[in-house]
Amino acid sequence: MLSVLGLSTQHEAVYRAMLDQPELTVSGLAGRLGVDPAEVHGALDVLADLALVRIGPGGVGMRAVRPQAGLSMLLAKVEADIATRQRQIEETRSVIAAIVSDYDDQEREEGVRRLEGLDVVRERLAELAQEARTECLSFSTGGAQAPATIEAEKPLNTLALDRGVRIRNVYQDSFRNCPTTLAYARWMADRGGVSRTVPTLPLRLVIVDRETALVPIDPGDQAAGALELRSPGVIAGLVALFEQVWQSGTPFGEAPARDVNGLLPQEKELLRLLAEGHTDESAARKLAVSLRSVQRMMTGLTERLESASRFQAGIRAARRGWV
């Protein structure tokens, strides 16, 4: 109860016993409390150091100091120590704020900051989620999101959404095949987040308040980290890219629509990728689907074009304006 003053439960018990029965000796205190006399001696040493017990010359005679004086004085000392500590904390906070300000000013001048490694990127995303005021835009490349990633993002997105931050996210169409990612998108939608999907995305991207953007250092190696960009011109270009992709996306909750040729967005994108010279393997990586899915889609397209080979299918697709 009085631990904040430096007293243990046993110290307090000895002190209270001395107040109740001032005539008790060490052995009497030990008998009343049911402890060894050595423990009473140890408690008396602590109480004496705290000026709660007065011991006479030569260790003869002892008495407890009245709590109105002893305990109140101890509390006043603790309060003074806390006030001093609080002043030190405030001074430290001011120094940290000055260092952060100087560092931020330097980064703003440079316009680019390297975030090396996934852990550093995650830490910065957590900071941005707490700093966001109005809007967060993002591209989530690939299909399924790892459960650990989703669980790490949930509290951050909750904080932002609760503050009224608008969150818009674009996934790839392949995410619709992942129950975990679908459930996460529904969870976001229930809290005000808005999601759309497109067949492919140019890169992983996060834009906060149209002031700060994170892009991969190496789009082919997410583990390498990210570049934090602050240049207004660069940010404006990335926002324009996001809005263009957003407009072409299919809103979450709606099935991707076929175009005038009866092609789904993913099928049309596959034809475009193959026409550009991509192999089935690289097209699968771009679409974030399996190689078997690409081959199955291509087989279906070849049959619809009534072609005997892929080469013939490509010619007929071009003639019909499919690519």
Would you give an account of this structure?
With 323 residues, the chain is α+β, with helices and mostly antiparallel strands. It has three domains: 63 residues, Winged helix-like DNA-binding domain superfamily/Winged helix DNA-binding domain (Arc Repressor Mutant, subunit A), CATH 1.10.10.10; 141 residues, Endonuclease, Chain A (2-Layer Sandwich), CATH 3.30.870.10; 55 residues, Orthogonal Bundle (Arc Repressor Mutant, subunit A). Helices cover 55% and strands 14% of the residues. It contains twelve helices and ten strands. An eight-stranded mixed β-sheet has the order 3-9-8-7-4-5-6-10, sandwiched between helices.
Descriptive tags:
alpha+beta, 8-stranded mixed beta sheet, 323 residues, Arc Repressor Mutant, subunit A, single chain, 55% helix
Topology (elements, then pairings):
Blueprint: H1 9-20, H2 26-33, H3 37-49, E1 53-55, E2 62-64, H4 67-110, E3 112-116, H5 118-131, E4 135-140, H6 147-162, E5 166-172, H7 179-190, E6 194-198, E7 205-208, E8 212-216, E9 225-229, H8 232-248, E10 250-251, H9 265-275, H10 280-287, H11 291-304, H12 310-319
Number of helices: 12
Instruction: Please state roughly what percent of the residues sit in beta strands, choosing from under 5%, 5-15%, 15-25%, 25-35%, 35-45% or over 45%.
Output: 5-15%
Principal-axes geometry comes out as elongated
Summed up, the domain count is 3
Radius of gyration: 35 Å
Biggest sheet, open or closed, and with what strands and sense? 8 strands, mixed
Strand order of the largest sheet: 3-9-8-7-4-5-6-10
Question: In CATH, what is the homologous superfamily of the largest domain?
Answer: Endonuclease Chain A
Query: H/E order of the elements?
Result: HHHEEHEHEHEHEEEEHEHHHH
The CATH C-level name of the largest domain is Alpha Beta
Structural class: alpha+beta
Q: Report, as a whole number of angstroms, the end-to-end distance.
A: 79 Å
